[in-house]
Amino acid sequence: xxxxxQTSTDFILLGLFPSSRIGLLLFILTVxxxxxxxxxxxxxxxxxxxxxxxxTPMYILLSQxxxxxxxxxxxxxxxxxxxxxxxxxxISFIGCGLQSFIFLTLAGAEGLLLASxxxxxxxxxxxxxxxxxxxxxxxxxxxxxxxxxxxxxxxCAHIAYVLHIPYCHSRVINHFFCDVPAMLTLAxxxxxxxxxxxxxxxxxxxxxxxxxxACSYGRVLLVVYRMHSAEGRKKAYSTCSTHLTVVTFxxxxxxxxxxxxxSLRSPTEDELLAVxxxxxxxxxxxxxxxxxxxxxxxxxxxxxxxxxxVTK
Length: 312
Description:
Blueprint: E1 11-13, H1 21-50, H2 57-86, E2 90-91, H3 93-126, H4 131-134, H5 137-162, E3 172-173, H6 180-184, H7 192-225, H8 230-258, H9 267-291, H10 294-311
Parallel strand pairs: 1-3
Antiparallel strand pairs: 1-2
């Protein structure tokens, strides 16, 4: 039974967990994943901060990726969990707008940041002698700030529209968070203009960076293939494959979700894909970067040794 104190402007999130034992098991699993992702992201950020060997553009960008993933999962899971625990599925109009704004900002910024990481890898392998010039700390900072600013501007444009359109009497969102496409199904006006604009936005923030990443790694793989050093080739392949795995986990569900026509989309499919990029990906990213990266594993050993020597 929904809370009686909800106002007429509140939205209702149907949520991800059914009211059954299966729902309880899914809830526990999601909370465990959230805690593990939280620990993994915070550990990665602290590791990069504490170990001077990781104070390079590649790992500075990785720390920002971890920060974005941390905000991703923290924006959605706690609210979803509290709704299930307390049986109150409502979210205020402003709260819904704020959640959407943070989500869209992070989604846009992360796409651009992954493109920056691909550029970093491209310069490091294809133009190693020019790397200190093309990937200086100033350039790295500009990439990070630019990603956040562009993501915020894009998000503001979307939210300004979403918060000003009239909604019909039903305010039940068939999703576990305030996803804009799910909200638009409740609008009392024709939203084709916004849907066209949304497609253009998704193309600019998803398709264009992905094409840039694909071209960068095409060039990188060609250079790696021509390397004479087996050790250098192995290290380059390891770095590239790690980043390509993360890129695939990010872009595949987003592209499939946001670049499809509305007529081909279904709420259930959208929810399953959203689980992947809002809950599972933030958990998998630190595991991928730590287990498949010797520099990260080395940094973990150095930090552990340093902490052990201090505590003795």
